[in-house]
Amino acid sequence: MFQLNGIVGGRLTNINVGGRKTILLQQIVLDVKKGQKLILRDINFLFNNDAFAIKVEAQPSPGTFIARGGAGDLRPNKILFNNNTGDEVRIFLLVSAINTARNSRSLSRSDSWHLTLARR
User: Fold this and answer.
1) What is the secondary structure of the chain as a DSSP string?
2) How buried is 116 (Cβ within 10 angstroms: 0-12 exposed, 13-18 middle, 19+ buried)?
3) Are 98 and 55 in contact (CB under 8 A)?
């Protein structure tokens, strides 16, 4: 198991996100050995605006997890990637914020997330 956390950060101002738009917050590269799965065990996140949802996805793969409501402490045990190719596969793990409102909203510099993931 391993953990990944992040914070929006930035200089002095919040980040404006247009209505119904998604903004990439974090991207890392992972290798998943043949026969292994990448599993999102738990997620803890806090956005200061309830209009934002968090999205965690493994590319290229259909594995996506979305949690709405601006904050949460969840244990989805979601399989994001199942490597049944016979070879090790390099994937991109992406963490994004989705503005679910119809108008522009702001992400705070202090908005943050923590993920626990497993390769099994």
Assistant:
1) -EEEEEE---SSS-EEE-TT-EEEEEEEEEEE-TT-EEEEEEEEEE-SSTTEEEEEEEESSS-EEEE-SSEEEE---EEEEE--SSS-EEEEEEEEEEE-SSS-EEE-TT-EEEEEEEE-
2) middle
3) yes
How far is residue 22's CA from residue 120's CA, in Å, rounded to a whole number? Answer: 30
Total Cβ atoms within 10 A of residue 82:
16
What does DSSP say about strands 64-67 and 78-82: parallel, antiparallel, or unpaired?
A: unpaired
In tens, the pLDDT along 26-85 reads 999 999 999 999 999 999 999 999 999 999 999 998 999 999 999 999 999 999 999 999
Q: Among candidates 55, 52, 32, 31, which has minimal Cα distance to 43? A: 55
